Amino acid sequence: MLAVVAVLIALGVAGPVPALAVVALAGAAASTLAGVRLSRLTIGPDAPAGPPAGRLARRRAARPRRAAALLHAAVVAAGLTAAVLPLASAGYRPAAAAAGLAGTTALLGGGLCSLYRSRRSVRGRLHRLLDQAAPGVCLVLTAWLLLPYAAVPAPMRLAVAVALGLLAVDALAVLTGAGRDSGTARCRGGSALTLFALVLLAGLPAGPAGGRVALLAVPPLVVGVLLVAAGVRQVAQPVPARRAALVWPRAVLPPVAVAFAVVHQLQAGLLPDRTAVLLALAVVPPLVVRQLVNTAAATSTDESAAVPDPMPAPAPAGPDGVAGRAGLLRALAGRPEPGCGALLVVDLHLTELPGRLVRDDVAAEAVRRARAVVAHDGEVFDLTGTGIAVVSGSGPVLAYALGTRLLTALSRPYEVSGAVLRSRPSIGLTELGSGQPEDLFRQADLARRRAAQLGRDRVEWYDAYLEEQLVRRLDLERELPGAVARGELDLVYQPVLGLADRAPVGTEALLRWRNPMLGTVFPAELLPVAEDLDIVGELGTWVLDRACRQLADWTVGGRRMWMAVNVTTRELTSPDFVPRTAAVLEAYGVGPDQLVVEVAEPKVAAELPTVVARLAGLRSMGIRTALDDFRAEHASLAQLRRLPIDLLKVGPEVATAGADPHRPLLDVVVTVAERLGLEVVAEELESAHQVEGAHRAGCRYGQGFELARPATAERVEAYFEEFPSTSC
Prior knowledge:
Number of strands: 16
Largest sheet: 8 strands, mixed, barrel
Strand order of the largest sheet: 8-9-11-12-13-14-15-16
Helix content: 55-70%
Number of domains: 3
Number of helices: 26
Distance between the termini: 66 Å
Strand content: 5-15%
Shape: elongated
Radius of gyration: 36 Å
């Protein structure tokens, strides 16, 4: 539909099709499509089949059907209004458009009243009116400056400008508000656009200028009626979660529109008239009143917070801090609109586990310290026995500084009931937009969880990507336990090739988790979750068993090669790792020299003595060992002599350092490895240049996408058939 309308507008601008004919065709087509959709909702059932309900419930269930009928009539009236304009004479076109505008307005109003119920308080209505007053005056001024003035009476021009400005600011508020994805918001936005188009048509001047105005009315008319139909269809569906309101369009678009209109007037050689000057001055009073109202609300809040409490104590809280959270939500709901400031949620995280009475004393002391830090800049709420919240009126930078001061104050030891307790607080911070209180608290709490995951003693901001990460993490933690039993784990194998003849000498087993809901999860995302859930051993046992079984199948075919298996430091340092590995090799009849156990170098330093002992135990059995992700730093080179390994795997940051004008780093690593009797494997080779550089530096083996990509066992076996049998 939009493509057809675009073609019609292009024809109207070029000249082959008259502008009023474009309006008639586009309006009739869009209204027909919207009317068909609304008619289906009109003749549909009042409510889905179910148990009998009361009269009030039946009336509420029938409300969308009644609204669909009224809005159906409204879009039909709008389409008929656009269709009759080419048929009416020039003198009667404004009257016909005005009649259609009046009928469409009445029908749209009735339909919207059936859908929309406002629960906004008197204060909220006042703030909303003040927030929309200044942008509305700006848009009225824009319409006044841009509307044609030749042969148009000033009162009619002003009435049209006021109608256009009010409709535009209402559409802007609906399309940028917190509930802009709801069905009622789409209906309101579509209704405003439809009336906007009809007002333009009603104000058509005589002569060629009327054609240009008529073409401007086509896009809002088409989009408006389609939005009305889409909104009614969405009303019967679950309402999506409210999002934060977009403040910048309401603050930026109206002034930009005024500036554009003024430039247009000046280019036409016209100066602003008296009405334009009065409209420009009318922008000032709403801004002043809005600022005074916000200042009065902030002053009352500060005065209530500044009243000294004769007995400082935390906010009352019942079990699990229900009352404290309820008070916080009430404070967030009662803040001036649009909201400004920040919400900080603090988790003390006591390192010891004291009793209930001691926790209450710690909470009281934490609230006292927080109040001393916050002073008159905000309110403090006791959420639980080990958590508090702070509502601050400061901006983002000052709120973050407040969070750092809270960290310092709350980290000091707590001397209560004869005991000294320590805490490691984590603070989540979110800006107070125009969202719902529950959403703001959830955002700050998600940021607080992120701070706890990153090691505590820190302040973290909320953002949408953070929420996606946390939700993803929660899904992983929920689905990973039991993945082995459900058969969701899989292995792919990446061949290791000799760089001299490009023949395969071994493979590396790579873990993949194929979850129906989460898709394919790679080890970089999987293993940290497994470590937190303490199921790394279970996963490692499965990987070792499956890799050795596959290696035994390939060995039966007469091919001798190694299989590399990655293990974490926690798994390697477990007491039963060496005997468990020997038992698996014996069960499948695999030679010890065919298995390579890889451990990542960055994780070795923390438990170096135990790692050295386990690697030595593996080598004593004939199992080869490898050090993966070698970084070639000074500390890495120093501990390389202590590690009993056979293979050294270097990544691209080492292999591609040959472009450095100084001495090539890879040459140094290869030289050190040769002196220690180690063989170097260059991994993650993704270009022919990297492969050639690694071979020229002296690396014996290579691995990467340029040589062979990871694949299933069947595809790797078919790849092996292209080469003669080799031995490791």
